[in-house]
Specification:
Layout: E1 2-8, E2 11-16, E3 27-35, H1 38-46, E4 57-58, E5 63-70, E6 82-85, E7 88-89, H2 95-98, E8 109-110, E9 118-121, H3 123-128, E10 130-132, H4 139-142, H5 145-157, E11 165-169, H6 173-184, E12 188-192, H7 196-204, E13 209-211, H8 217-226, E14 233-238, H9 243-252, E15 253-261, H10 275-279, E16 284-287, H11 293-305, H12 323-328, E17 335-336
Parallel strand pairs: 11-12, 11-14, 12-13, 14-15, 15-16
Antiparallel strand pairs: 1-2, 1-4, 3-5, 3-9, 3-17, 5-6, 6-10, 7-8
The protein binds zinc ion (2 copies).
The site of one zinc ion has 6 residues, from α5.
Length: about 350
């Protein structure tokens, strides 16, 4: 089969490799659609990542397809079943899993190899985070499972409730998914982004209003002034991943409010936070990373329900040979359709 293999920084090669054979517990799927992801772009630049096996490594982690082979001991799925797969699964037994924090699992297993005609799903993921493709759901939408599950997890972890004024900073894929989920809960969402097209999209994803990004103190004041009540937001989500935006997120929350630091910043970066609102304002500030098996199931149900125009988040389909070029440029997520898939 044809597969993209990462060999090092910037070195992604389309190769002819043997079809994967499933070991006990494993499932092999013919990829109908994979999706590019900002994490892939980062992995390609760096040539290594904690979620990647050592190079040369099969590449890509968002996919849906049809089962073509199952290993010994697999009760479900069977050959011919259409499935969606998450990009990881927790062990269920470590310190963190035992404390109901599977997103912090010490022995997490990651998926890699979605940019290929066939994808081997590790036994742990096959057992815990491989799900039937809901009827009528396009595979390129189902492949959004991982990013959407992360957003589901972040919203569940937050205290955002119906009627709350919620500010989402960042109108990329994650900001839009957060907006859809929060609006679905009955929150009034204000989305902030410098790009007019993303602001317009947020309104169709359920935002009550969309504003320019808070780039400085004046921008922070402008966002606070736009939130009814004049006290700041009940809940803020930062979905950009820059230290300056993390600081803006804290400045936009009202006393007693909550800040969710969802966008991951570059390694080694730091932020400076004002002590008064944290202490006298009793702010709650928390990170949110990755997803849980429950969030994966919720995300797939939402995608199947089609309760937001999720298709707007992905661009035109590409072939395997175009992936490296697309990842080097910035742009929307693109469905990758590997030719020759069974
Ligand atoms: Zn991803
Ligand atoms: Zn664990």
């Amino acid at each position: 089969m044809r597969a993209l293999i990462l060999h090092g920084p910037g070195d992604l090669r389309l190769e002819e490799v043997p079809d994967p054979e499933p070991a006990p517990g494993e499932v092999v799927i013919a990829v109908e659609a994979a999706l590019t992801c900002a994490t892939d772009a980062k992995m390609l630049r760096q040539g290594a990542h904690p979620a990647l096996p050592p190079v040369p490594a099969p590449f890509g982690h968002e996919a849906a397809g049809t089962v073509v082979a199952v290993g010994e001991g697999v009760a479900w799925p069977a050959r011919g079943d259409r499935v969606a797969v998450a990009n990881s699964a927790p062990c269920g037994e470590c310190f963190f899993c035992a404390r109901a924090r599977p997103s912090l699992c010490e022995h997490i297993v990651y998926l890699s190899g979605a940019f290929a005609e066939r994808l081997r799903v590790p036994a742990r993921i096959a057992a815990r985070n491989l799900l039937p493709l809901p009827p009528g759901l396009a595979p390129e939408h189902a492949a959004m499972l991982e990013p959407f599950a992360c957003a589901v997890r972040a919203v569940e972890r937050s205290g955002a409730a119906a009627g709350d004024e919620v500010v989402v900073i960042g109108g990329g894929v994650q900001g839009q998914l957060l907006t859809a989920l929060l609006a679905g809960r009955g929150c009034r969402v204000t989305l902030c982004d410098p790009h007019a097209d993303r602001r317009a999209r947020a309104l169709s994803f359920g935002a009550a209003r969309a504003l320019d990004a808070p780039r400085d103190q004046e921008g922070v004041r402008r966002v606070r002034a736009a939130v009814p009540g004049g006290r700041g937001a009940d809940v803020v989500f930062e979905a950009v991943g820059r230290p300056a935006t993390w600081e803006a997120a804290v400045a936009i929350a009202r006393p007693g409010g909550e800040v969710n630091l969802y966008g991951g910043c570059a390694p080694g970066t730091t932020v400076t936070l004002p002590t008064f609102p944290l202490h006298y304002g009793e702010l709650r500030v928390q990170g949110s990373y990755h997803h849980t098996p429950e969030a994966v199931r919720e995300a797939l149900a939402r995608l199947a329900a089609g309760d937001a125009p999720y298709g707007e988040l992905i661009g035109a389909p590409i072939g395997l040979e175009e992936v490296a070029g697309v990842l080097a440029a910035s742009g929307p997520k693109r469905p990758v359709i590997p030719r020759g898939a069974a």
